[in-house]
Write a structure and sequence with these properties.
Layout lengths: L3 E10 L2 E11 L4 E5 L6 H9 L6 E6 L2 E2 L5 H7 L1 E4 L11 H10 L3 H7 L2 H11 L15 H14 L4 E5 L7 H16 L3 E5 L3 H7 L2 E6 L2 E6 L1 H6 L1 H10 L4
Helix pairs in contact: 3-5, 5-6, 6-7
Bound molecules: adenosine-5'-triphosphate and magnesium ion.
Amino acid sequence: MPILSLSDVSLTIQNHKILQDISFDVEEGEVIGLIGPNGSGKTTLFNVLSGFLKPTKGSISYKGKDITNLNPSKRARLGLGRVFQHFGIFREMTLEENVQVALEAMPREQRKQLGDIEELVKATLDMASLTSHAKQKAGDLSGGQMRLLEIARTLKSGKELLLLDEPTAGVSPKMTHQVADIIQELKREGKTVIIIEHDLPFIGRICDRVVVLDVGKMVLSGEPEKVRQSKELQEIYFGADPTT
Ligand SMILES: Nc1ncnc2c1ncn2[C@@H]1O[C@H](COP(=O)(O)OP(=O)(O)OP(=O)(O)O)[C@@H](O)[C@H]1O
Ligand SMILES: [Mg+2]
């Protein structure tokens, strides 16, 4: 059974068809790259998957359960995690406190399953290679470091399916490497990841499969290398950008 299944997901806002009949399955442990030109609907699809927008048509199931009508917090409780840029990082708190606060805000039942909070805080900072900054204020971190902290924190909070929207945007090349390492570590842990990225070589390195959106439709899906070499992809990208 796929961990996530989208069936004919469509979203129309004021007669504007933003997503159209998107159907695909994601298997547990898969790393999927979601690509497509600017405005093709990638972030909107994440909003629909995480429950911030309700599709006009179609359904979404997670581990065999229909979640189409569940709100974001209910979906999060089921194990669906989303990483926003800089979302929920308190700049005045230390890194340690930031992670601790996020873990303590979780429902008690879920928190219990995670084990010792102190250990978990350490493991989270370690994952983001930020252990030596534990007592520093989060506001002093670089954008890339905040991003890593945010990703590690979501990951360590027991989520099983992770939605990452351009995690390397504005991040240095070194940090991009670290993000790739974290995603690979997740894969080893059996987590499922859907990642939106414009950096195609990055996608090629870390993804099992690529799904391509163009004007709200899923136009291609397949192994990264095959998608990269496909004529359709060239047409989408070169057709979409009048400057190239
Ligand atoms: N709430 C909304 N109301 C109206 N239009 C919207 C809304 N949200 C998104 N759109 C439109 O939907 C389309 C898809 O936007 P979206 O942000 O999902 O694209 P994207 O693929 O993530 O682009 P980018 O690569 O630039 O991040 C755009 O035309 C956008 O203007
Ligand atoms: Mg976007």
